[in-house]
UniProtKB/TrEMBL annotation:
Gene Ontology molecular functions: UDP-glucosyltransferase activity
EC id: 2.4.1.-
Entry protein name: Glycosyltransferase
Keywords: Glycosyltransferase, Transferase
A Pfam family recorded for this sequence: UDPGT
Length: 466
């Protein structure tokens, strides 16, 4: 195909690390298949995109201004990671909606055959329709969580309970999944949220379909159920982090706060499956009391760890912690090269908040998980990991949280670490995790399920573009 006939696709990720990174990965996957790919974002998010697309110079990045003043949001809050508190999220969402005129201006200036926009931009379907091009919806979550949240929206089983701790089964969702109201996001109980989901559903109905960062074999039952439930086409093209690794090993997201070579050297000096990696993503907000409990849990457990802490000061660390754990523990202050760490053979378990990207990265690397969900759809992901896939154990969090107080004591963490690292149960979990990792790798290889979905998607777009 000559340059003129090339398919042009515009990607518009939501402004959070957990969306920018997988969409950067997707841009690379499309670009290596000859699709001319453009990513639209705001200036402060460009480094994350650049860090993910790496040396691929074929991908164009277009920048738009973030409407601080108009939205009444503090300067610098250009992604979910930098909003001062979770209470700012509704204003932040409003601010992102103000990007619509700029997006449409860019669509006018850069004619494109398809707009792939995050589900959090329901209005993007109208924008695409104005230019007579198809819109695809990108969800930053897995299809099990998509189905669970849709069944809750439709059937509202949590509305009639007498207490937040009563259990209920998610109606019509395969797998007999039990939840409590405490595990649901605060906002999920509000009418505003139901309205937002409704808007997302409507925009999905007006779209060509949905792109999911997952692989069919991982959530097969739910992939089939979703198509029945929504009647929309879905393409399962993940794990996108693995598509990226096929090209440039481990390079993703922001610049790491540590020397990658040093951390790999440290891991090289450890035996296989002995190190625990602890990281809670880019948004989760832990109190100092909770961080201290984690420190105590890691210290009492007594084995090797890498712990990522999103703080710039360390007064809250128990007195003498660094001295006592020297040689067996590393704290990364800021941002870790997560995929590089997870893929190292020394890493034996991942204590995770169950953000979808982290979950999928652990699945890809075959690393068992200690699940510590915090917010958003993470409690659904925990169910998938622990109950449906059997590749993790729960630390025992009971409640969705805006700021994580000391809900998990050090002894709970120590117990979960012992359970995931040694003994018969741990071995069975590790075997299942390894098998699943192989399936994930096969999915992204030539003729694998994800690779075939991507081929099909590109063909469809070609046939629409004419
Ligand atoms: N991540 C990373 N280093 C860190 C923290 C996070 O590379 O120190 C990456 C991680 O690999 C994943 C993304 O940031 O790709 C976080 O997305 P996820 O969906 O797991 O969680 P969120 O940050 O959206 O809560």
């Amino acid at each position: 195909m000559d340059e003129k006939e090339k398919l042009n696709v515009m990607l518009f990720p939501f402004l959070g690390q957990g969306h920018l990174i997988p969409m950067g990965d997707m841009a690379r996957a499309l670009s290596v298949r000859g699709v001319r790919t453009t990513i639209v974002t705001t200036p402060l998010n460009v480094p994350t995109i650049r860090g993910t697309i790496g040396k691929n110079s074929e991908i164009e990045i277009l920048s738009m201004k973030f409407p601080y003043v108009e939205a009444g949001i503090p300067e610098g809050c250009e992604n979910t990671e930098s909003v001062p508190s979770p209470d700012f999220i509704p204003i932040f969402l409003k601010a992102t909606a103000m990007l619509q005129p700029q997006l449409e201006h860019l669509l006018l200036q850069h004619p494109t055959h398809c707009l792939i926009a995050s589900a959090f931009y329901p209005w993007a379907s109208h924008s695409a329709a104005k230019f007579n091009i198809p819109r695809l919806v990108f969800y930053g979550i897995g299809v099990f969580a998509m189905c669970a949240s849709e069944c809750l929206r439709l059937y509202q089983p949590h509305k009639d309970l007498s207490s937040d701790s009563d259990t209920f089964v998610i109606p019509h969702l395969p797998g007999n999944i039990q939840m409590t109201r405490m595990m649901l996001p605060d906002y999920a109980k509000t009418d505003k949220y139901t309205e937002m989901l409704q808007a997302i559903r409507e925009s999905e109905a007006a779209s060509l379909g949905v792109i999911v960062n997952s692989f069919y074999e991982l959530e097969q039952v739910y992939a089939d159920y979703y198509e029945k439930l929504q009647g929309r086409r879905a393409w399962y093209i993940g794990p996108l982090s693995l598509c990226n690794q096929l090209q440039e090993k481990g390079k993703r997201g922001k610049e790491a706060s540590v020397d990658e070579g040093e951390i790999l050297k440290w891991l090289d000096s450890k035996k296989g499956n002995t190190v625990v990696y602890v990281c809670f993503g880019s948004i989760a907000n832990f109190s100092e009391g909770q961080l201290r409990e984690i420190a105590r849990g890691l210290e009492d457990w007594g084995q090797e760890f890498i712990w990522v802490v999103r703080r710039s000061h360390k007064e809250w660390l128990p007195e003498g912690f660094e001295r006592r754990t020297e040689g067996r523990g590393v704290i990364i202050w800021g941002w870790a090269p997560q995929v590089l760490i997870l893929e190292h053979q020394a890493v034996g378990a991942f204590v995770t908040h169950c953000g979808w990207n982290s979950t999928l990265e652990a699945v890809s690397a075959g690393v068992p998980m200690v699940t510590w969900p915090v917010s958003a759809e993470q409690f659904y992901n925990e169910k998938l990991v622990t109950e449906l896939l059997g590749i993790g154990v729960p630390v025992g969090v009971k409640k969705w949280a805006r700021i994580v107080g000391d809900s998990v004591g050090s002894e709970k963490l120590e117990k979960a670490l012992n359970r995931i690292m040694a003994g018969e149960e741990a071995e069975a979990i590790r075997n299942r995790a390894h098998k699943l990792s192989q399936t994930a790798r096969t999915a992204v290889e030539c003729n694998g399920s994800s690779s075939s979905y991507l081929t099909d998607l590109i063909q469809q777009l070609h046939s629409i573009a004419g």
